[in-house]
C-alpha cells in the first residue's frame, strides 16, 4: 500500500534499515507518532476552538470596532461598567432567564413523558422515534420562519384556531409574555423529541431486575415510574438539564427571526443575551463590548451549571438519607 | 456493517451492564434481543399511549406540512380567513421567485460544499485523534483528553468575536473557508470516536499486526478504519446535519453575496421579501436536502443520538 505512506503522517518504514530491531530514529518515532495522529485535530482546535474562547476575555478589556478589528485600545473594565449601566443588558438578561424557563421546563417534562410511552412495547416504534425526531433535522432559521408565519397576528393559523375556540387574537410579537411564549415554543418544538430519545436511552439502561422487584412488592406502574425510573434516570436528567440550560443562554436565531429584528422586538421585549451580543457587535460595531457580553454569558453558564450540580447533589443526599 | 453500533454506551455512568439495545442496528448484529427479558416489565402500549404518541408525531410533522401548504399558495391566500389548509398550485412559481430574489441556488451549492467538507474533515480528524486516544500510549494523554472533553460543553458562540477578528485578519470574511475550518473542530467527535474504538477494536488485533511488522499508519488504514466505519458513518451524519443547520457563525462570517442556506434564510426573514409564500418556498428548499438525508438514514440518526446520550 503506497497510499499509506503518502497519506498518513507515517514514518517511511522502509528508510529505517533494521526493521525489527528498533533503531534510535524508529524508537523516537514510536514515541512521537501518536502526536502526529492528534496534530490535525489539535491544530484546528487550538486555532479555532481554544484560542477564541480564551482571547474573548482579553478583547473584552479593549475598545475594538468592527470596521477596524486590528486597532485595539485599552479600556480596562470600561466595557463591563458600560454594560451594567445599560438597561437593555438587564432586560436581555431577564428575557434570557424567562425564555429559558419557559422553553426548558415544558420541553423536558414532555420529553420525559414521551420517553416513558416510547419505552412501552409498541408497533412501529422505529417510525415513532424517527417521527418525533423530525424537528431536530430542521434549522433554527427554517423553523423560526415557519413559526413566525403561524404566529402572525392578523392571519396566523394559531390566532385563527384560538378564534375558533373563542379566544381573542393574541399579539404574538408585541406583547412581552406572548412573544416570549412564541420564541419558547420554537425551542420546545425543535428539542422535545431529541430529549425524549435521550431519556429513552437512559430508561433502557435501567436494569430490569429493579422493575421486577418493584412489581413483586406490588408497586403500581405509577410508583414504578417514580421510584425506579426517575431515580435511575437521574444522571441523564442532570445531563439534559445542563445541556438545555446552556442552550437557553445561547438563544439567538429564534428571537432574531421571529420578526427579523436585531433588537428582539420593538421594545426589546424578547431580546436574549445572544441577540444582544450580536446587536452590540454587528449592529453597533462594538466588538469589545460584545466580547464583554460573551464573557458574562460564560460566567452565567458556570453559575447555572454550579447551581445545577448543587441541587443534584442535595437531592441525591436527601434521598440517600430517606 | 458488522461491528456493534452501540459501543459508546457501556462507559455510561447510568449503564454499567448493558448498552441500549433499542436501536434496530443493534438488532441486526445478532445481539440477543432484550425483548424476552423485558416482557416482564415492558407493557404493551394501550390506546391512550398510542393516542398521545400519534398526537406528538402530528405536532412534529405539522409545521412541515404547513410549509408545503404555504409555499404552494400565494400571499393573498395566506391572508384569508379561514386560512387555506390544503396545498395550492403556486409551488413552482414561488420556487422561481425565491431563486431569483434570495439566490437560494447558490446558497444550496455553498451549503453542500461547506457541509460536505466539514463532514469529511471532521470524520477524518476525529478518527485519527480518537484512535490515538483509544489505542496509543503517549505522555500527556490524560491531560489532552481532559482538555478536549472539558471544552465539549462550552458553546462555540462565546468565541465568535476573536474568531471574527482572526478571519478578518486573514482576509477570509465572506469566504467559505471561514466557515469550513472552524467547523472542523469537534471535541464531541473525538470523544465519540475514542469511545467507539475502545469498545469495538480489540487490542490483540493491533498487537498481532505489530508483530507482523505493520507500521502504525498501516494499522490505521487497514485495521482501524474498517472497524471504525459504522461509527464514522454515524458521526458523519450528525456532523452533516449540524453543519447544514449551523446559524450564528455563518451569519457573522458570510454575507448575502456568498451565502449558505441559513444565511439566505436569515436574509429572507429580514424583511426584504414581503411575500410570505415566497419566504416559505425558500424555507422548504433549504430544508429539503437535510430532510432527504433524514428520510433515508433517520434510524441511524436516532441510533447515533441514543448512543451519544448514554455516555453523557
UniProtKB/TrEMBL annotation, chain A:
<dbReference type="Pfam" id="PF00528">
    <property type="entry name" value="BPD_transp_1"/>
</dbReference>
<comment type="similarity">
    <text>Belongs to the binding-protein-dependent transport system permease family.</text>
</comment>
<dbReference type="InterPro" id="IPR035906">
    <property type="entry name" value="MetI-like_sf"/>
</dbReference>
<feature type="region of interest" description="Disordered">
    <location>
        <begin position="1"/>
        <end position="25"/>
    </location>
</feature>
<dbReference type="GO" id="GO:0055085">
    <property type="term" value="P:transmembrane transport"/>
</dbReference>
<protein>
    <submittedName>
        <fullName>ABC transporter permease</fullName>
    </submittedName>
</protein>
<dbReference type="InterPro" id="IPR000515">
    <property type="entry name" value="MetI-like"/>
</dbReference>
<feature type="transmembrane region" description="Helical">
    <location>
        <begin position="35"/>
        <end position="58"/>
    </location>
</feature>
<keyword id="KW-0472">Membrane</keyword>
<keyword id="KW-1133">Transmembrane helix</keyword>
<dbReference type="GO" id="GO:0005886">
    <property type="term" value="C:plasma membrane"/>
</dbReference>
<keyword id="KW-1003">Cell membrane</keyword>
<feature type="transmembrane region" description="Helical">
    <location>
        <begin position="130"/>
        <end position="151"/>
    </location>
</feature>
<keyword id="KW-0813">Transport</keyword>
<feature type="transmembrane region" description="Helical">
    <location>
        <begin position="97"/>
        <end position="118"/>
    </location>
</feature>
<feature type="domain" description="ABC transmembrane type-1">
    <location>
        <begin position="93"/>
        <end position="306"/>
    </location>
</feature>
<feature type="transmembrane region" description="Helical">
    <location>
        <begin position="292"/>
        <end position="312"/>
    </location>
</feature>
<dbReference type="InterPro" id="IPR051393">
    <property type="entry name" value="ABC_transporter_permease"/>
</dbReference>
<keyword id="KW-0812">Transmembrane</keyword>
TrEMBL record, chain B:
<feature type="domain" description="ABC transmembrane type-1">
    <location>
        <begin position="108"/>
        <end position="297"/>
    </location>
</feature>
<feature type="transmembrane region" description="Helical">
    <location>
        <begin position="219"/>
        <end position="244"/>
    </location>
</feature>
<feature type="transmembrane region" description="Helical">
    <location>
        <begin position="108"/>
        <end position="131"/>
    </location>
</feature>
<keyword id="KW-0813">Transport</keyword>
<feature type="region of interest" description="Disordered">
    <location>
        <begin position="1"/>
        <end position="40"/>
    </location>
</feature>
<protein>
    <submittedName>
        <fullName>Sugar ABC transporter permease</fullName>
    </submittedName>
</protein>
<feature type="transmembrane region" description="Helical">
    <location>
        <begin position="143"/>
        <end position="167"/>
    </location>
</feature>
<keyword id="KW-0472">Membrane</keyword>
<keyword id="KW-0812">Transmembrane</keyword>
<comment type="similarity">
    <text>Belongs to the binding-protein-dependent transport system permease family.</text>
</comment>
<feature type="transmembrane region" description="Helical">
    <location>
        <begin position="48"/>
        <end position="68"/>
    </location>
</feature>
<dbReference type="InterPro" id="IPR000515">
    <property type="entry name" value="MetI-like"/>
</dbReference>
<dbReference type="GO" id="GO:0005886">
    <property type="term" value="C:plasma membrane"/>
</dbReference>
<dbReference type="GO" id="GO:0055085">
    <property type="term" value="P:transmembrane transport"/>
</dbReference>
<feature type="transmembrane region" description="Helical">
    <location>
        <begin position="179"/>
        <end position="198"/>
    </location>
</feature>
<dbReference type="InterPro" id="IPR035906">
    <property type="entry name" value="MetI-like_sf"/>
</dbReference>
<feature type="compositionally biased region" description="Low complexity">
    <location>
        <begin position="1"/>
        <end position="15"/>
    </location>
</feature>
<feature type="transmembrane region" description="Helical">
    <location>
        <begin position="278"/>
        <end position="297"/>
    </location>
</feature>
<dbReference type="Pfam" id="PF00528">
    <property type="entry name" value="BPD_transp_1"/>
</dbReference>
<keyword id="KW-1133">Transmembrane helix</keyword>
<keyword id="KW-1003">Cell membrane</keyword>
